[in-house]
Structures are given as C-alpha cells and as structure tokens.
Amino acid sequence: MASPSTRSSSTNAAAVENSDWVELKPGEQQFVGYDYSEYECQILRYRKVTQKKNEFYEVVLSATPFYGEMGGQVGDQGVLVSENDTIEVIDSKRENGQTVHIVKQLPKDPSAQFMACVDTDKRDASAANHTATHLLDYALKQVLGDHVEQKGSFVSPEVLRFDFSHFEKVTDEQLRQVERMVNDMIRQDLPRDEHRDMPMDEAKKLGAIALFGEKYGDKVRVMRFGPSCELCGGIHATSTGRIGFFKIISESSVAAGIRRIEARTGKECEELLYNIEDTLKTVKSFFNNAKDLQGVIQKYIEEHDHMKKEIEGFQAQAVERAAKTLVEQAREVNGVKVVTSVIPMSPAAAKDLAFKIRAAVQGSLLCVLGTHDNQKPQLSIMMSDDMVSDHGLNAGQMVREAAKLIQGGGGGQPHFAQAGGKNVDGLSAAVDKVIELAHL
C-alpha cells in the first residue's frame, strides 16, 4: 500500500554529515526482495554518515533482498555475511530508487562476495501487518462507506497504524464489524494474487484501488487478496492466514475528517491476550477469585456510591457544626467580627465553611481559615461587602501576600479568595498575616 508514512523520524531533524561515496564497482542495484530473503551480492559503493556524534555507514549492494523503508512500511533488517565477516544491517531505506543499507561498521574486505540475509521473523511480521492494512481498508469501506480513503499508514513488525477519511468517530459496534470481517478473510487463508508490471488500464479493470495524490507509472504492481485489490509496492504475506489474528487497539482523531486505527496481529495479539488474561486474574484475586466478577464489581461500586453519599452527609454536618462553633467564638475588633481557625479540612469543605460563616454573621466580617488536607495547606479569606467598599480591603491581594508563608499563591474576588501552598507549618503565620494586613 504505497502511502506516506505516519512515523515521525528524529533523524530528519538532526544535523547529518555525509562523506563522499566510495565507489567499489560500477553498476545498478537489482531488487530481488519480492522473491528472495537471501541473495548473493557485492558492495557497489558506501559512505560514512555522522549524526549527533554517532557514526554509521550507508551501503549500496549490487543485488538486494532488503526492502527499503517506503510507503509506510519499515525497512528490513538482517546481516551481510562473507567468508570472514558478519555485518549487521540495522535498517534499510529507499533513496533515489534503490535500497540503502545502514550498518554500524564496514566489513574488513568491502570488495568480498556477500550473502545478504533478511531477518525473516521481522519481515514476516511486518508483511503480515501490511497485508492486514489492505484487509482493514477493504473492511472499512464495507462498514463505513465508499467515502473511506487511505490518508497514511505505518507498518512495522510490532504494530500497524492506518489513517483514513471519515467524518465522525467510528463506533464500538462498527469497529467490531470491521474486526470480524478482517478475521473472516484471515481464516479463509486467501492466497496472494500478485501482478507485476501490469499496465495501468488493466489494473483499473481489475478493480485495483489507487491512492489519491500518488503518482503511478504506465506499469504498476497489483496486490490482491480475495476482494481486496490495490496498487502496492510493499512486502506482503503469502496468504491472509499468515496474519494469524487481527485486533484493533485504538481508534482516534488525528486531524479534521481524518481518523486513525491502531491494531495488532499474530504474535503481538497473542501477547495482548496473555496480558488481558493476567490482568483479569489479578483483578479476580482482589475479589477472592469470584466467578461473577462483573456482578461483584457492580456491587462494590454501588456500596462505594452509598458510602460516598453518607460521607458527604457527615462532612456537611461537620461543616455546619464548625461554622456554628467558629461564629460563636468570633472576636469583635473595632466593630468587625473576626473569625480565624487552622483546622484539617478538604478544599471543597473549606470553601463551603467560609460561605456558611458569611451567611451566619450579621454586619462586618473578616474570616480567615487555614486548612490542610493530605499535607497540602490552603488559605481562605472571606469578607462582608462593606469590608471591601468601606474599608478598602481586597481578599485577592491579601491572600497572595499571606500565601508566601505557605510557599504558595492564589487569588480570587475582592470579598473571597483562596491560595494553596506547600508548607503546612506556615498556616498559622499566614492567618496572622491576613489579620495584620487588614489593619483593624
């Protein structure tokens, strides 16, 4: 599926220094990767590349089974083996119509005969994922409609990502339909029907899907698996059965009108199922290995909700009692009721308490509360309107100044403000600071 890769590459952003190519022998590279995973070859040319103080070499072979990264499919890895050397190929990329092999070191004798060997385990996994994207594309069109069009893809041995045009979130039911359709085609073990160098007109008659915006020559490669038929230059499984199993992991939006599906196949699906099984076993162990896990969890949720309501009721009563007590203990300074306290209390309860005190006090009020919850201090200032209009006080300004003593900050309205901090031990001093700033 020839398409732009959705994989971001940090190598593009880094400064790269390329030395000149060292030419060992003339000739053009022959790509044999569609038919072989091992092939005899020689090195045509190589060059050293320096990137972020790391050195590696780019090597061009006379013939190669290595597929260079292109169309969203990652490049092959493997080894170059000679009589005296085994050189690891850590990546392959496509450059100027040929595969460039990335190696960390050059062989002792670059002019030797080599056997280029692809890591077939990784290639087979990548090929399975690539074929799965074709089946996914077909299934999405069947379930969502013909407006679905591929907008990008990424295929590696571990994962596949597929971007497509669609105007809304794909529902869970639709995703399940897509999965079932793809897995049905996998179980049918549909053989790979490949047509190389097919004239474009014939490919269109065959029903091959071309990507919008892609440029194609007069001759194209067509890849068909049962009802799925597309123009594609990538590496594919010999039949859909090689995919094993297909499972969608996520569906999300990546741009306006563009959705992304991430999925796993084969061995990665197996590992995913093991992880789910292990997680379920762990969860069951929390509930004495209950057979009806869903029922037990539902019961715990209901009990939790009931307890939460009871606790909220107790908290409300506690706030009512605290408000009554603090108002009764308030001292009067120059005609102003002054309420101060440092108590353990949640932020929400502290705000509720401040407003209850304001409602209970007739006349001028200055209320300063220092509260703490899980070693997190909070300072709350509540004043009557006349303290703002007649005395010129501003709770927001005062709380910012006093909050320095609890290593924090905050703000709010002129009559009510709050601040959080880090130093619980500074709460009493912060409360006193507010009273000092009030100049009563």
What is the molecular shape? elongated
Total count of strands: 24
Largest sheet: 9 strands, antiparallel
Share of helix among residues? 25-40%
Termini separation comes to: 78 Å
Oligomer: single chain
The computed structural class is: alpha+beta
Percent in strands:
25-35%
Radius of gyration: 35 Å
Question: What does it look like?
Answer:
The chain is 34% helix and 32% strand. Helix 2 packs across helix 3, helix 6 runs parallel beside helix 7 and helix 9 (395-402) crosses helix 10 (427-438). Strands 1, 2, 4, 5, 6, 8, 9, 10 and 11 form a nine-stranded antiparallel β-sheet that branches. The chain has 440 residues and is of the alpha+beta class. It contains ten helices and 24 strands.
Question: What brief labels describe this structure?
Answer:
alpha+beta, nine-stranded antiparallel β-sheet, elongated
Please sum up the structure shown.
The chain has 440 residues and is of the alpha+beta class.
Blueprint of the fold:
Layout: H1 10-13, E1 16-18, E2 22-23, E3 30-31, E4 38-41, E5 43-51, E6 54-61, E7 63-64, E8 78-81, E9 86-95, E10 98-103, E11 114-118, H2 120-144, E12 150-155, E13 160-165, H3 172-187, E14 193-199, H4 200-206, E15 219-225, E16 228-231, E17 246-255, E18 258-265, H5 266-286, H6 293-328, E19 331-333, E20 336-344, H7 347-360, E21 365-373, E22 376-383, H8 385-389, H9 395-402, E23 409-412, E24 416-420, H10 427-438
Parallel strand pairs: 3-7, 20-21
Antiparallel strand pairs: 1-5, 2-5, 4-11, 5-6, 6-10, 8-9, 8-11, 9-10, 12-13, 13-18, 14-15, 15-16, 17-18, 19-20, 21-22, 22-24, 23-24
Helix pairs in contact: 2-3, 6-7, 9-10
